């Protein structure tokens, strides 16, 4: 697996203005350094302990994105290292991140996770829940969190029509949320699209794609 070559090939397919998050979970530091050597600086991890261990041992200019389901008891652990949390799926989690960021005097960027896929196992706000959260004024009251956009996943299926519809729904949710926010200057990101569907996601307005297996090969559990 030539990780450096894979990164360059993927980058060639991504238009300017779309951020590549190299999903490095379950892969060793050596593989991440191969990506780093060709200029990749944004990496996505889904386990708090793994993110912290890698952040402590790899170069300081790496931006760590937390992309998995974040348990409340793991928030404090990642706070000093993370630059963006993609997967905020409850008001409780949002308020806890704000409190923990305040405790260590940092401002943390987050995305609100939207649930549109057919699988029951996926986390996230429904459109109604998200709009209720915005209308409640909670987001405008945060002191140490910047809500910078939304994240979502398409249904895990070969049905391209369904994938298209899911990404359209996520993009529409982003637009509706942006309209309702009092201060929406920072609300600019739509994180959607993975190895199998990122080109469709970009067509539908994604500004950030999360790509793992196309870069690193299949995960080494």
Protein described:
- This protein is α/β, with parallel strands linked by helices and 221 residues long.
- It has a single domain, classed as Alanine racemase (TIM Barrel, Alpha-Beta Barrel), CATH 3.20.20.10.
- It is built from 10 helices and 8 strands.
- β4 (82-88), α5 (91-103) and β5 form a beta-alpha-beta unit.
- It is globular, with a radius of gyration of 17 Å.
- The model has no long low-confidence stretch (mean pLDDT 95).
**CATH architectural arrangement:** Alpha-Beta Barrel
Tell me how many strands there are: 8
> Termini, distance in Å?
16 Å
Percent of residues in helices comes to: 40-55%
Number of helices: 10
Whole-number tally of structural domains: 1
At the fourth level of CATH, the homologous superfamily is Alanine racemase
Percent range for β-strand residues: 15-25%
Question: By helix and strand content, what is the structural category?
Answer: alpha/beta
CA radius of gyration is 17 Å
Mean pLDDT rating = 95
Largest sheet: 8 strands, parallel
Order of helices and strands: HEHEHEHEHEHHEHEHEH
Unreliable spans are none
User: Regarding CATH, which class?
Assistant: Alpha Beta
Strand order, largest beta sheet: 7-6-5-4-3-2-1-8
